[in-house]
Amino acid sequence: MSYPEQYHQFIELFNKKEYYECHDLLEEIWMEDKSNKFLQGLLQMAVGLYHFSGGNIKGARWMFTNSRKYLTPYSPRYWDLDVDEVLSYLEDCLNALPLEDAIPYTEAKMMPFPSLHLKVDQP
């Protein structure tokens, strides 16, 4: 199956931890079809990681929770992506967040945090 080029670019940028750029890419195609909750879920995961990297824990928690809500109906696989793996990662992210609503940027950068390498498996 053929997917939008931005989807493949998103996967590449996500794996490079370029979360802000991931957001821009997926937002472009999500704006064309706002009913696509799969893309919205991936978009919000990237935004959550971007928030976390800046110390905005409250924003990260909100985005991870929404991402999980949007992606759950696409389990176990969708668009050749292991959605169950992404959902497990989101759970790990939520569990790793500190209790505070915000932490200093420098603390966020030094804090160990779950990582995920996305890959699209062709059938």
TrEMBL record:
InterPro entries cross-referenced by the UniProt entry: DUF309, TTHA0068_sf
Protein name as catalogued: DUF309 domain-containing protein
Protein source organism: Brevibacillus ruminantium
